[in-house]
Design brief:
Elements lengths: L2 H29 L3 H24 L2 H4 L5 H28 L2 H8 L2 H11 L7 H19 L10 H25 L4 H17 L14 H25 L5 H7 L2 H12 L7 H18 L6
Helix pairs in contact: 1-4, 1-10, 1-12, 2-4, 2-9, 2-10, 4-5, 4-8, 4-9, 5-8, 5-12, 6-8, 6-11, 7-13, 8-11, 9-10, 11-13
Pfam families: EamA
Main location: membrane
Family: Belongs to the EamA transporter family.
Length: 298
């Protein structure tokens, strides 16, 4: 895959993922959909569809090849549980407790977490521009979460905790996925990771426990959007982009995700954003773009 195609994949997926989070919030608020059930069902259906696409493209044997290697099969299980399920569950929990805009912005601390990890593991030292970006990230989080008040958070504390965990899970997801791409197709990796995460979560949130027969047609359309456009395509595009972009680049060039989430949260769901929260949002967006266009100079 060429670099231009990789950039297209990551930016398209980012927009869909950001909008998908807002649609999921509507399902929680307006239709009483259980968060755990939604994560389970979206993982199972999206994973099944991705593996189905791979099977049609290259044959059923191609989706089973990864399980022939004990090393990679164990790593895939870890990736599915900690990476895929970790990202999906923490992100949705942050949306449920707060809103999609804050959850997505907190998740996009992942580039900073990746940068810190690469520095601690002595793989890459941060540049001067990256240090400036960390300062912007800290300032942005302060304004976003407090709306300028030193006495209390403007966002529920549980939403903050889940959002920070989501950022850490996305960092792990991004770094860990690279090891699979030299040997296996992205459809196989993402499809099985989703199936693994969905099956594991089914133990706690069985997909058959939710009564959805009484939902209006509009709710089914939203549910379909979350599964296809808010889960299946974004995660496939994200992994696919790693074929031509570095983990740091992929996590940074997805900067349209928080913008899409903020715009749809404020203008579609009509959630209020205070002045200082807009300032914090601007700081975080500048941080992402600052790092995205950072040349590796000191």
């Amino acid at each position: 895959m060429g670099r231009g195609k990789g950039i297209f994949f990551i930016m398209t997926g980012a927009i869909l993922w950001g909008i998908g989070g807002t649609v999921a919030k509507k399902l929680f608020q307006q239709y009483g959909i259980d968060m755990g059930w939604l994560v389970t069902i979206r993982l199972l259906i999206a994973g099944f569809l991705l593996l189905g696409v791979q099977s049609l493209k290259k044959g059923p044997a191609s989706i089973l090849e990864i399980w022939k290697s004990k090393k990679f099969s164990l790593q895939l299980i870890l990736f599915g549980l900690v990476g895929m399920l970790g990202v999906q569950y923490t992100y949705m929990a942050s949306i449920e407790k707060g809103n999609a805009a804050v959850a997505t912005l907190l998740q996009y601390l992942a580039p900073v977490i990746i940068m810190i990890y690469l520095f601690v593991s002595k793989q890459s030292a941060p540049t001067r521009k990256e240090m400036y970006a960390v300062t912007l990230a800290l300032a942005g989080c302060f304004f976003l979460l407090t709306n300028g008040s030193l006495s209390q958070l403007s966002v529920p504390s549980l939403a903050v905790i889940w959002g920070l965990l989501s950022g850490a899970a996305l960092a792990f997801y991004t770094l860990y996925a690279v090891r699979f791409l030299e040997r296996y197709d992205s459809l196989v990796i993402v499809g099985w990771a989703m199936m693994i995460g969905g099956v594991a979560l089914s133990v706690i949130h069985p997909p058959w426990d939710m009564k959805v027969t009484s939902l209006p047609m509009e709710a089914y359309l939203y549910l379909g959007f979350v599964i296809i456009f808010g889960t299946m395509l974004p995660f496939w595009f994200y992994i696919e982009s790693l074929n031509s972009l570095s983990p740091k680049e992929s996590s940074l060039l997805g900067s349209l995700e928080p913008l899409a989430a903020v715009v749809t949260t404020v203008f579609w769901l009509k959630d209020s954003f205070g002045l200082f929260q807009w300032i914090g949002t601007s700081c975080l967006m500048v941080m992402i773009l600052f790092l995205a266009f950072n040349k590796e100079d000191s």
